[in-house]
Design goal:
- By secondary structure, the protein is α/β, with parallel strands linked by helices.
- The chain has 8 helices and 11 strands.
- The chain has a 6-stranded mixed beta sheet with strand order 7-8-9-4-10-11, sandwiched between helices. Strands 1-6-5-2-3 form a 5-stranded antiparallel beta sheet, covered by helices on one side.
- The chain has helices at about 60-65, 90-95, 115-120, 125-135, 140-145, 155-165, 185-200, 240; strands spanning about 10, 20-30, 35-45, 50-55, 75-80, 85, 100, 170-175, 205-210, 220-225, 230-235.
């Protein structure tokens, strides 16, 4: 049996085609001697939107960091598209089709919209194609194409961040706190765009503190508290859990 091409990126036994785009199995993680994740199970099927929910300190951010190779799992397994990726660096995961849109947008504020998009052509895709696809998905960016990104509204900056991420044609898009600092109507519009991206076949994990902002487009939801998954299922299945006061939601 030949060795895998990457020491930490191995094809999973049941093959890539049927595997979820992201799967965490019994994952634990620590900061020093303090354990912050306790046996986390999480799965993002192909072409679906999964919401990772919970209050501040629930373990959402650490789960995201483990899933994207930015923090090691102390135990358990991380799979991307059917490959075992424990210990893989973020760059290796990016080559497997993982793209993260961080909280705080992750754009070049002093460059124009066009320049931001062209910066995403570093993998060899023609810049004109990237701009054309971005404007097709997000028509408002076409109206702002030569505007300096930092002068746009927060919602428009978030659209630009998503357009930049999608320029790499990822299989898995991870969005951290999309709603941060945005008005509810803008958030609703952005999540409709997220749903459209999922319909194109991209798997999406959305990390949110406030449940109601994402549930309209989520296929599945996972609720974390104190570093553990306390509930998982469809939004309808989790209605009672999602009405709990600690999520900041109302029935």
């Amino acid at each position: 049996m030949s060795a895998p091409a990457h020491p930490h990126v191995e094809e999973h036994a049941h093959g890539e085609r049927s595997a979820p785009l992201l799967e965490l199995r019994d994952v634990t993680a620590c900061y020093g001697r303090i354990q912050v994740l306790h046996g986390v199970d999480l799965s993002v099927p192909r072409g679906e939107v999964v919401a990772l929910l919970g209050p501040n300190g629930a373990g959402k951010t650490t789960t995201l960091l483990v899933a994207t190779g930015q923090h090691p799992a102390a135990s358990g397994c991380v799979h991307i598209a059917g490959r075992h990726v424990n210990g893989a660096k973020p760059e290796a995961l990016a080559r497997l089709g993982v793209c993260t849109i961080p909280e705080g947008r992750g754009i070049f504020r002093n460059l124009t919209v066009r320049e931001n998009l062209v910066m995403a052509s570093y993998r060899g895709q023609p810049a004109a194609d990237i701009v054309e696809r971005a404007v097709g998905r997000f028509p408002r960016l076409g109206e702002r194409i030569d505007q300096v990104a930092g002068t746009m509204s927060g919602g428009e900056q978030q659209m630009l961040a998503m357009a930049r991420g999608l320029a790499t044609e990822p299989g898995l898009l991870i969005i951290d706190e999309l709603s941060m600092g945005l008005a509810p109507l803008i958030v609703a519009e952005l999540y409709e765009l997220v749903a459209g991206i999922a319909r194109e076949g991209v798997s999406i994990l959305v990390v949110e503190q406030f449940a109601r902002t994402v549930l309209g487009v989520a296929d599945h939801a996972v609720i974390m508290q104190h570093g553990r998954v306390v509930a998982a299922g469809t939004p309808a299945d989790l209605e009672a859990d999602l009405s709990a006061a600690y999520l900041g939601a109302t029935p």
